[in-house]
Structures are given as structure tokens and as C-alpha cells.
Amino acid sequence: MEKAKNSGNVVILLAHPNFKESQANKALIDAVKDIPGVVILDLYAKPFDAEAHKKILSEAKAVVFQFPFYWASAPSQLKKWLDEIFTPLAQTEVVKGKPLMVATTTGSEYEAYRSGGRNHFTMDELLRPYQLTANHSGMVWQTPHVVYGVATPAGAENVKEGAKAYRQRIEALLKK
């Protein structure tokens, strides 16, 4: 799922263990895959190539971690990528100063991610480890893009609106 690599790309690191069956994350990717300058790396598609990923990141204008949110985190392949590929690059010019955004989808509605809500924490609180990653590596944390309620009766509409807004966010990152 890699696209042509040229300077000033937005690199989307897609971490979905069953992307072919995905509806929400697939809709997000479908909304942005035709934008010139978007590079999509499916972390579950093939083994990591450290040199290739370093080159792609060095040419990136911004980085996006995209994944379905479950068990208060991302799927394990993103953590593996962070450990194996990102850690040696953290605090280097390869990533320093670049925007980092998380794009995620939740089965539960927005209200579940409030203080006192069913999940007891806000999404900002739950995504703090990724914000820490950005801060520690000298990247610029961006407000996360969260599509809530994909498993609710309003799920299809939430995904449709979320995909439209995601495209706008990615286009804005390309203009920075």
C-alpha cells in the first residue's frame, strides 16, 4: 500500500490487524489515498524495512498514526514499529519538528469518553502516551482525529462525516 515517495509527504502509518474487514479505518484511508503527497504504510502488510521507513520518514512533512482504538490503545504492530523503527530515530532530524497526529476510530459514542462516562477517561487522556512520544522526540503534537461511535446506530453517518473531516485534516497537514 505504499505510494510514490517525494518530499513533503504526509506519512500515514496504518496499524489495523484486519484492514480488509475494516469499515471505519478503510473509509478513512479511502478518503485520503488519492491525495498527492499521501504515503500509506500498512504495518501489517509486510515485515518492517528499517532503511526504507527511515527514508520515508526523512522525506515526510508530517506523520499520522492511524488505528482502531481498543483496549485503550493501538494494535500491537504500532508498538512494535515504535520499538524497532521509531526509537532509533527519536530525537534525530528525521522526525524533529514534524507534526504527529493520531487518527483513530472507536466503537463507543463520544459521551463514553468523558469524565464520568462509561469509559471514565477522555480520549485526550487515553492518547497521552502518543503525545509523550511526540514531545520526547521533538515532534509537534496535533489534536487527534477521532471518529466516535462506529458501532452505534449512527455508525455509518459517523464514519462518513469522520472520513470527510479526515481528508480536510490531511490536506491541512500537507499545507503546513
UniProtKB/TrEMBL annotation:
Keywords: Oxidoreductase. InterPro entries: Flavodoxin_fold, Flavoprotein-like_sf, KefG/KefF. The keyword NAD does not apply. Residues 9-169 form the Flavodoxin-like fold domain. PANTHER family: GLUTATHIONE-REGULATED POTASSIUM-EFFLUX SYSTEM ANCILLARY PROTEIN KEFG. This is NAD(P)H-dependent oxidoreductase. It comes from Butyricimonas hominis.
